[in-house]
C-alpha cells in the first residue's frame, strides 16, 4: 500500500486490579480500530474506554502498541506508542469477528472486508491530496528518477 500501515496492540488478557498494576494497565479491554495517527491511516489497538467516553480529556495520553502492515491481511507487531489525543483520530472500531490476534506471535489478521475499507480510506486520502505522492520522472533510457 502507498501509505504506511500500522496496527497497535495491547495485551489481550483481562486487567487485574491488584495493587501492583500500574494505573495505565488497569483499563477496559483493548480494541482494534482503524485510526489516523499523525498523517497515516493505521490499524491500532487501544483501550476500548476511548469508544465509550463521550469526552476524552485532551490532556490524557493514549497508549497503543503499533503493528506494521506486512502482507495482504497480515500485520506484525512493531512498537509501543504513547500519543497525544490530537495525534490520533479513531475512524472505525472493528468487531472482534473481523480480527484474529495471535498475540504470542505478534501477528494480527484482518478480515478482507476490513482490508477493503482500509484500502478505500487510504485511496481517498491519496485522491483528495491529503498525502502528497512522490513525483517521478523517467529518463530516456526508461529508468525511474525520483524528483
TrEMBL record:
Ranges of compositional bias, category Low complexity: 11-24
Region (Disordered): 1-24
Biased composition (Polar residues): 1-10
Protein's recorded name: Uncharacterized protein
